[in-house]
Amino acid sequence: MEKLLFHKYHGNGNDFIIVDSRKTLFFNDITKDEVQVFQKLCNRNFGIGADGIILIMKPEYNNYAKMRIFNSDGSEAQMCGNGIRCLVDYLYSSELEDNNTIEIKIETNAGLKIAEYNKGKITVLMGKPIFDTNLIPTTINNKKNDLAFYEFSKENFNNLGYAVGMGNPHLIFLVNDLDKINVGLLGPFFEHHSLFPEKTNVHFCQLIKDNVIKVKVWERGAGETLACGTGACAVHVVAYKLGLCDKNTTISLPGGDLSIEWFDNNDEVKMTGLAQKVFSGEIYI
After folding, report:
1. What is the pTM of this model?
2. Low pLDDT (below 50) residues in the chain
3. pLDDT value of residue 33
4. SS (H, E, C) the chain
5. Which residues are catalytic?
């Protein structure tokens, strides 16, 4: 058995185990055995417990670092908004804290992301929203205001759903009463819906007041979580495209609020929020 140093972080309650693979030989080559280790580490009863694992890798190009992220079921995600804020906070506090404001470039499976750390707040350019159904990906054919949409049905739930990509797929439902939504029932059903060949994240949203949207999250590969950064971006994009909000919104998630800014197809979505270290430790593998 070998000891693995880890750092536990959360962004709006969406929690992650961070492993700095630049400083260890662990997880340099991800195999089926490593995926099983990820599942065990994320287990909240028999492991550390987390929604996912973030590996910090050496960058392939002239950037600060590379991020790989794995869900609690062991599947690899392209991108995670809350996760990248946790990564940036770790990098800042461990390596860069002499600067009050700093820009950090991070390579991800969804492309290069540029983050700014400014006195505890972390703003990330999350990329342009994806409306091309082949790239989301989804087999939905109907479109309205660039948005792919489909009328979904499950038991007593009948609602239009809108598909948007943020480097990973998202399905957005706008509902009148969020408290009546059974996320545990509907989330996994829509995650695995046949219209999404790579599965999808699922978000149920209610307009609370001007530019404030309350959201409940079912994440692909992780289940019901307290927050989803890329999902918050996708929710804003859908609401803006439907004329339901201005260019700035507050996305209110069970784990806290995120500020999102976007209004043009040619612009990247800007996400601002916090991240917090919970603890560090060692675990035997």
Report:
1. 0.93
2. none
3. 76
4. CCEEEEEEEEECCEEEEEEECCCCCCCCCCCHHHHHHHHHHHCCCCCCCCCEEEEEECCCCCCCEEEEEEECCCCEECCCHHHHHHHHHHHHHHHHCCCCEEEEEEEECCEEEEEEEECCEEEEECCCCECCCCCCCCCCCCEECCEEEEEEEECCEEEEEEEEECCCEEEEEECCCHHHCCHHHHHHHHHCCCCCCCCCEEEEEEEEECCEEEEEEEECCCEEECCCHHHHHHHHHHHHHCCCCCCEEEEEECCEEEEEECCCCCCCCEEEECCEEEEEEEEEC
5. 80, 228
